[in-house]
Write a sequence for this structure.
């Protein structure tokens, strides 16, 4: 194997590096967030939820609030993402407003 | 005369003891610790496919399919007005997948979950999630996607 071939081999390895730019992440805690230390603007709640296969808005509402009937709150908070409340997709990252 | 000297000795002894007791101690007592603000510690870290309302992993696993959402649940004990937990997800030789953090003010036992999903599917291989508390690594868990 010549120098050029070895260089080409390295190039191929670099190309094989997977792309993680589309990864969605989130988190939530049973602990409260720290109290604000200064005047802050009202912000949306930081909770998020990643839709998995078999989810529906009512199922998520039951998971997050313990009440499936509160699905509309999630729908309203994600109107830019959800066109039809009966159609959500695995991998979608939804904002979960405070109940 | 003998009686007088006994009384005098007793008086001197009491005076000497009083002086000794009022003398400042050689090593002063340490100042009280600040209100339990550094007492938070991570007691458990679990990986899995789902979490419950209590944020604990309900389906523990260290092996996932490419389409699954991966959860890490971090249990902490203690109180703090401000503690930051971070999950750093890496692939194979250390390629950064995602990093997310959450600042909490726990008062006792708390559970914080982080999750990642990749709509196009995870590349197969070995991954790690490193959990940090206030910038210090506290636990590393390995898992596979295959």
């Amino acid at each position: 194997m010549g120098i050029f071939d070895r260089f080409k081999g390295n190039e191929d390895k670099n190309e094989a590096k997977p792309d993680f730019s589309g990864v969605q992440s989130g988190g939530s805690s049973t602990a409260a967030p720290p109290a604000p230390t200064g005047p802050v603007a009202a912000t949306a709640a930081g909770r998020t939820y990643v839709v998995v296969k078999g989810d529906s808005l009512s199922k998520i509402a039951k998971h997050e609030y313990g009440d499936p009937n509160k699905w509309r709150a999630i729908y309203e908070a994600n109107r830019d993402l959800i066109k039809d409340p009966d159609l959500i997709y695995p991998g979608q990252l939804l904002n979960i407003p405070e109940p | 005369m003998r009686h007088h000297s006994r009384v005098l000795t007793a008086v001197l002894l009491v005076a000497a003891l009083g002086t000794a007791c009022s003398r400042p101690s050689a090593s002063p007592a340490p100042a009280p610790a600040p209100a339990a603000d550094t007492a938070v510690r991570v007691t458990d870290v679990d990986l899995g496919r789902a979490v419950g309302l209590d944020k604990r992993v309900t389906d523990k696993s260290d092996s996932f399919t490419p389409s699954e959402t991966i959860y890490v649940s971090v249990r902490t004990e203690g109180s703090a007005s401000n503690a930051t937990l971070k999950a750093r997800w890496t692939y194979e030789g250390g390629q950064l997948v995602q990093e997310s953090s959450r600042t909490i003010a726990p008062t006792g036992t708390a559970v914080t979950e982080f999750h990642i999903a990749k709509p196009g599917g995870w590349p197969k291989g070995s991954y790690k999630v490193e959990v940090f508390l206030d910038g210090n690594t506290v636990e590393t868990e390995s898992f596979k996607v295959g």
